[in-house]
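step: validate -> pass
step: tokenize input -> pass
step: predict -> running
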Amino acid sequence: MIKWELPILHRFSPTHVLAALFATFWVSFRSRAALQLEILALRHQLAVLHRSVKRPKLTSADRLLWARLCEVWNDWRSALVVVKPQTVIAWHRKGFRLFWTWKVRHGQPGRPPVSKETRELIRKMSRENPLWGAPRIHGELLKLGIDIGETSVSKYMVRNRKPPSQTWRTFLENHVKTMVSVDFFTVPTIRFQVLYVFLVLAHDRRRILHFAVTAHPSAEWTAQQLREAFPWDTAPRYLLRDRDRIFGKEVVDQIKSMGINQVLSAPRSPWQRAYVERVIGTIRRECLDHVILFGEGSLYRHLQSFVDYYHRSRTHLGLEKDTPEPRPVQSAELGRVIAMPEVGGLHHRYERRAA
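step: predict -> pass
step: emit ->
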């Protein structure tokens, strides 16, 4: 192609200037056939270059040029010879990523990061409440003064493979208030007589609702104890017992007449009545194993003393270190700590009293 340097035209005569202008006009408006021939020649040279150089070296400016051309020129693939179209598209995507990386680091800040404490709280709520979704957890967080988006809550929730379900502990706690257990245990006396203790335990607060002592248990006597344990409309919904023969027909009829559903444990499976078995073991270890009993009256008095201590003073692991009858927490301002003996001095209750 002919290139003209117009800045030096003042050195030539008017004739030369006119000739140069005419040549420029001719180059600009030459025939379409000549332009096509020049394009053909340039493409042939590019083809030769492409055969000679297997991997041409391109600079960042070259990549940027083609990345911009592919945005503004629809027919850019037809003029591409040196590289493949997929390569140009990859350049464009890389430039897009670099642009947004720069914008995030130096431009407007994006979504604020979620703190570690908030992430752990979201996971804790998700595990403890399997029936909750992201909107429910998000609402709970807003009530706690935590400003976070619902999409972020959904991102950090614990994903369960199985359908959401309550835990066995939750299921049992929802039914424990309507359940009681009954059982017998034996106690020997100083004269080698065997006494029977009948025990009724409520599951909700581990309260001993009723106990009785006899030397000759029978179904009629047991039915009478049930009537005394549940006067008027205080009968529970479920009663858990073993398959002892003492629970005869009279007991079964009495349970049905009171509208109670009895649940029988499997043979030789005391673990299915864990609450009442645990209380019986506690009574033995903390009271009866340390005294000598002379008869029914002696056994009843010791049991009554221990039951009072059990309800008012003895803390339970299953009740979060509280007593069956809730015991208030005493602050240090109430005075010094004093000890009060209970159960004949086997145990003590500690309280604060003013000097």
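step: describe -> Strands lie at 179-188, 194-202, 207-214, 238-241, 261-264, 336-342, 347-353.
step: cleanup -> pass
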